[in-house]
Amino acid sequence: MAVPQQRTVAPDLDELRRRATAAAAPRREEGLVVCENLVRIYQTEGVEVQALQGLDLAVAEGEMIAVIGASGSGKSTLLGILSGQDVPTAGAAEVAGHDLLAMKRRDRLNYRRTTVGFVWQQTSRNLLPYLSAAENVMLPMTYTGIKRSQRRARAEELLDLLSVGHCRDRTPDTLSGGEQQRVAVAVANANEPRVLFADEPTGELDTATSDEVFAALRRANEDLGVTVIVVTHDALVSEQVQRTVLIRNGRTSTEVLRRVATGEDGVDVLTAEEYAVLDASGRLQLPGEFTERLHMRKRVRLALESDHIGVWPDEAARQARSEAEEAI
Q1: What's the whole-number mean pLDDT along residues 119-142?
Q2: Is residue 3 within a helix (H) or strand (E), and if so which, with residue range?
């Protein structure tokens, strides 16, 4: 299990912000969501926790991706920053042209109301218990000046789209967990956001109900055109998107890209390839099972070949590996 690095000496945050922000510019990536060298440090009584340690991420408009990682890897911290609920320590982060490091408090509030939507894991956090499903969907529209007649029509349209139109006049306590989460997806889309964030949206549901909620997220992505970023630990959920991003130790580590390829027999086959992520500084994380097997520690040898880069353990590591194999 990945655990955020801890130290007892607090850093010079101003200097850290300067270095990380300088490293993030000029931007090399383009997308609706762009993070470069993103850093988030929490401090409590002189102890710092580095939740994000120079994370890079780019998400194109219209994409639907899954972000996965062990507890403490930084995935929920990333989601909190991108959704405007938290503020990064350093680096660069933009969503739909909004600079998340430069926004003032009022700008951040408006950003949460109009640019992004959010679905929590806990069904009880998404809906007000004393309002009907339709009234819950209408509520965010009251903050953006939409007329009441238009709010009602928009709410009913969203509920029908997500297959919960039959719930419009019912309160959350009369809905199943899956119905509550689909209504929550409707609430998150009420103000036509550019990006929808979902934090473990199926974490409290069984497999069949999870499929229904994920289908609602996919419908929002395909029919409403909203970009969707889902944080999940559920492998079945992460396998339903074309791109899965793994975060490890506060950085993007690997990505799995899924494509439909047509075989020689004419049958379409879903293929999945895993890639290591190379950040703007040329860093990548080698998989732990690879480095353990080859006894790689601290130093490795590199060689530039015509079409690839070779990576080998140093002499001490090779000797350790040889001795281990002889002992077996």
Answers
A1: 94
A2: none
CA pair distance 23, 118, nearest whole angstrom: 30
Task: Write the CB contacts of 159 (distance below 8 Å, at least 6 apart in sequence).
Answer: 133, 134, 137, 165, 167, 168, 183, 186
61-84+102-261 CATH, one of 1.10.357.10, 3.40.1080.10, 3.30.230.10, 3.40.50.300: 3.40.50.300
Does the pLDDT of residue 6 top 80, yes or no? no
Can you give the pTM of this predicted structure?
0.84
Report the amino acid identity of residue 66.
Answer: A
Q: Which residue has the tokens 């997308």?
A: 31
Dist CA 77 CA 231 (whole Å): 11
Please give the residue that has the higher pLDDT: either 7 or 104: 104
Separation of alpha carbons 290 and 293, rounded Å: 5
Give Cβ neighbours of residue 218 (< 8 Å, ≥ 6 apart): 64, 228, 240
For residue 85, what is the DSSP state? S
Concatenated DSSP letters of 99-110: ETTT--HHHHHH
